[in-house]
Amino acid sequence: MICVTRDNGAAARRRRCVAGLCRRRWRLRAGIAMLAVTLLAPAAGAADLDDSILRGSYSDMFSASRYSRWDGVNFGIQLGLTSMDTDFGNSTSQLVAYILRNSTLESEASPSSWTALPHNITNSRNYGAFLGYSTQWEQLVLGIDAAYNRPSSMQASASDSISRRVTTSDGVTHDVTITAQSTMKLVDYATLRMRAGYAVGQFLPYAFVGGAVGRFNYTSSATVTSDETPPAPTPPFTFGPITQSNNKDNAVVGGFTVGLGMDVAVLPNVFLRGEWEFVGFAPANGIRSAINTGRVALGVKF
Fold first, then answer.
1. Structure pTM?
2. What span, in angstroms and rounded, lies between the C-alpha atoms of 290 and 252?
3. Could you list the residue range(s) of the whole structural domain that residue 275 is in?
4. 70 φ, ψ to 5°?
5. Beta strand spans in the chain (E)
6. What is the structure's pLDDT at 58?
7. At which of 15, 32, 62 does a domain end?
8. Whether 7 and 149 share a structural domain
9. CA-CA 20 to 30 A from 213: which of 32, 147, 154, 263?
């Protein structure tokens, strides 16, 4: 009976030891698992957060919607090639009219209205800058811009003469010769334009219309000679030559402008521009000028 009791007590102790060891091992494993979950969960969440932030910043920076926005302030520099068509035909009219003032020849034959000089076309590089503001409703873009342009060298000149024979009511035959010379130089010009465009992705085709003002230097001179043969017995005689001239620097002349162009966004806030512009100026001293310009520009919008 004593041996059995001893054996049973030892077995019970062994069973209790095994059970305690198992519980300790289970608790250790559970603790390690909970620690792993605690440490790994924030890291996974942070990775997801960082990844979403990176994805969001990348999408915002390079999304197509940022390229298609054209509202706000814009400015830039531009370079082009300009062709100026200058009509000198009436540039000496006032001078001839003054020389022949109060004469039968002028009142009846009007030599001052004769076209003594031709057109002249000259080309030059053109550079400048622009500043504008645009508003946008979906694809429609409306804006206004001001630009300053200066050609590198834009001067035209013409010289010629014209001769005609006329007989006035007093019986005098006039062999009239008018010799004329004129020059016209465009110093610079500025425009104020209204623009309307239609945004297609990163492209903005547009049209514009507005006003222009330019500075010109001009000179003109005219010489009139008339060999006159009155009825006999009065002998022939020669009137002239008589010369008149005028000139002016920095004459301010108004005008208008129209044209077409396209802006292309190469970065969200940077664009390239291609443009054709026509500017027609009012006559200055009887000289009428018009310019056609093809240009490229680099601009920034914000």
1. 0.74
2. 15
3. 71-301
4. -125, 5
5. 72-87, 119-137, 140-151, 155-167, 173-198, 203-229, 237-267, 270-281, 288-301
6. 42
7. 62
8. no
9. 263
Q: Are residues 221 and 77 in the same domain?
A: yes
d(CA 268, CA 18): 72
* Cα within 13 Å of Cα(160), Cβ side: 16
Predicted local distance difference test score (pLDDT) of residue 54: 45
* AA letter at 180: A
> Domain check: are 294 and 231 in the same one?
yes
Q: State both tokens at 78.
A: 């531009």
Structure tokens that stand for 270 in this block = 């940077």
* Residue 48: count of CB within 10 angstroms of its CB: 10
- Residue 99 tokens, joined: 């020389």
Instruction: Name every residue whose Cβ is closer than 8 Å to that of residue 272 and which is 6 or more positions away in sequence.
Output: 263, 264, 266, 296, 297, 298, 299
* Alpha carbons 39 and 33: distance in angstroms, whole number: 10
- What is the chain's mean pLDDT, rounded? 84
Amino acid at 68: S
Q: 237-267 and 203-229 as β-strands: parallel, antiparallel, unpaired?
A: antiparallel
**130-165 pLDDT per residue, tens:** 999 999 998 999 999 999 999 998 999 999 999 999
- Whether 171 and 238 map to the same domain: the answer is yes
- 139's CB contacts (< 8 A; 6+ apart) are 198, 199, 200
Ramachandran angles phi, psi of 115, nearest 5°: -85, 105
C-alpha count within 13 angstroms, C-beta hemisphere, residue 205: 1
In 3D, which of 65, 60, 183 has the Cα closest to residue 122?
183
40 and 85 within one domain: no
What's the rounded Cα separation, in Å, for the pair 54 and 57?
Answer: 5
Radius of gyration in angstroms for the set of CA atoms belonging to the chain, rounded to a whole number = 44
What value does the mean pLDDT take over residues 13-36?
55
As a whole number of angstroms, the distance between CA 193 and CA 148 comes to 12
